[in-house]
Amino acid sequence: MRLLVVEDDSRLLTQLDVMLQQQGYSVDLADDGEKALFLANEYPYDAAIVDVGLPKIDGFELVRQCRKKDISMPILMLTARDRWQEKVEGLDAGADDYLTKPFQNEELLARLKALIRRASGQANPLLSHGPIALNTLSEDVTVNDVSVSLTAYEYKVVEYFLLNPEKVISKTELTEHIYDQDFDLDSNVIEVFIGRLRKKLDPNGDVKPIETLRGRGYRLAKWA
């Protein structure tokens, strides 16, 4: 999952960056609203974390401009002030949720996961498709009720597929949403990664969980 984090407190921005990357997220950073608006227009994000008190363009106006441009990513707003009027203004501007500083990382992560699930039409923390099941709370993945050990990147790819079960996902889209660095898309990096993931999900070749659509990308297999 690719996130946009917008915060003018450099210490907090760094802390969020480290914490979210440790959780397997791909993170882009902005320390003012103007830069954040540029990034939001240029790249597809699965969610954004936006501070209210930003230089150049404040958090409220940033959210309003994103929504005017039909940028539909879920947005979690942060504020140091616990005033209900400010929360209402943020929600009216188009934010999806609100968190008051200081906060616990566990609460921020829980709210973030819930926003991403709901944006994909999944309210339940247990995602499933055919024999594959993923619990977004415990981050456990099973195939036919058998636990599968995955790396952080592999987990995020499975999660992304399960949040988009009917969608054909291109190599470019996988790269943009999963990885921090840009890979040469003519290379076989993604093919090798998907091949390794298939072996972990389907070591005996019985399930065939991920289809390849030549020239288009990948999609979860369809099960009756």
**Helix and strand pattern:** EHEHEHEHEHEEEEHHHEE
List the strand order in the largest sheet. 2-1-3-4-5
| Contiguous helical run count | 8
Q: Sketch the major β-sheet.
A: 5 strands, parallel
Number of strands: 11
Describe the structure.
Helix content is 41%, strand content 21%. With 224 residues, the chain is an alpha/beta fold. The chain folds into two domains: 2-119, Rossmann fold; 126-220, Winged helix-like DNA-binding domain superfamily/Winged helix DNA-binding domain (Arc Repressor Mutant, subunit A, Orthogonal Bundle). The strands form three sheets. The chain has a five-stranded parallel β-sheet with strand order 2-1-3-4-5, with helices on both faces. Strands 6-7-8-9 form a four-stranded antiparallel β-sheet, covered by helices on one side. Strands 10-11 form a two-stranded antiparallel ribbon. The chain is elongated, with a radius of gyration of 18 Å. The chain starts with a strand and ends with a strand. 31% of the residues are buried.
How would you concisely characterize the structure shown here?
It is built from eight helices and eleven strands.
Q: Can you give keywords for this protein?
A:
224 residues; alpha/beta; Rossmann fold; Arc Repressor Mutant, subunit A; 2 domains; 5-stranded parallel sheet; 8 helices
